[in-house]
Amino acid sequence: MASARDYTIGLIGRSWAMVFASGGYNVKLYDNQPGLALNALNEIKKQMMELQEAGMLRGQLSATQQLALLSSHEDLQQALQGAFFVQECVFENLEVKQKLFRDVERLVGQDVILSSSTSCLVPSAVFSSVQNQSRCLVSHPVNPPYDVKLVELVPHPDTAAAVMDNAHILMTEVGQVPVRLRKEIDGFALNRVQAAIIAESWRLVQDGIISVQDIDLVMSEGLGMRYAFIGPMETIHLNAPEGLGDYMKRYGEGIQRLLRSFGPVPDFFAEDAETVVSEMCKLIPNDERHLSARRKRRDRFLMGLARLKKDH
């Protein structure tokens, strides 16, 4: 496990460590700044105990047993000893990621899989300095990964099929829900779909069609209710008497008409964009106290939804 240079091991790094430990794997956390890996380990211990008390600890092992599989390190070579899978969790800085993988590659064998948690950098860029690119891929989690199990597996153009297979097996084994992209694309799949939703939601608010509060309700009390269990393709497949083809016969022209009516990509930095930001901040002030409380609320709801999905 690797964290950001000059940054503490953050939520993504801690979550990955907890996910792999829940599957019974030994996990070594590394940070090049003294004491930060140990701090992350202490935070994980606290979180695991809380999860166990709430009945939401993942895996078959107790919190104590999982914690015994975790260790913190300040020496990269020591952290990489015995590794077969390296999950990098550095912040979104291409040069830092490239340097880290150059350092890692010098210290591991040719069969060790190198994986990045990047959410917006394509594998061909992240691994451009790696000599053996056939063992490289992006494993893009959803925040927070411990509660939201999807992980996008994105290959480098030269990634070996066996590497994708092994990563898929590992992610499934530790309880994640991996999806494979057949080739790299900017934003991967999740962020491209999310960007489309953000853009149209922003336009509807900015054009005075609907409020920030109500557009969020469109998703949370409407589309999101279905999408928590089935995706958009299955949704429309089930919404017509004879399935997907029938749906498009009935509604395809209307969908095309709507798509043609969409405006250009919104300017999120224009002067009138401030009205959208202001409306959001009136609902939830953007100070640490209010945002932290809403994040905790979000995570609590996600834990409850995860429990519901597990039971069904």
From TrEMBL:
Keyword Glycosyltransferase: no
Any GO BP annotation: fatty acid metabolic process
PROSITE patterns with a match to the protein in the record: 3HCDH
Signal peptide start and end residues: none
Domain of life, per lineage: Eukaryota
Transmembrane segments: none
SUPFAM superfamilies (alphabetical): 6-phosphogluconate dehydrogenase C-terminal domain-like, NAD(P)-binding Rossmann-fold domains
Keyword Oxidoreductase: yes
Ranges where the 3-hydroxyacyl-CoA dehydrogenase C-terminal domain occurs: 187-254
InterPro entries in alphabetical order: 3-OHacyl-CoA_DH_CS (IPR006180), 3-OHacyl-CoA_DH_NAD-bd (IPR006176), 3HC_DH_C (IPR006108), 6-PGluconate_DH-like_C_sf (IPR008927), 6PGD_dom2 (IPR013328), NAD(P)-bd_dom_sf (IPR036291)
Annotated 3-hydroxyacyl-CoA dehydrogenase NAD binding domain residues: 10-183
Keyword line: Oxidoreductase
Single GO MF descriptor: L-gulonate 3-dehydrogenase activity
UniProt similarity note: Belongs to the 3-hydroxyacyl-CoA dehydrogenase family.
Name of this chain's protein: Crystallin, lambda 1
Organism: Hippocampus comes
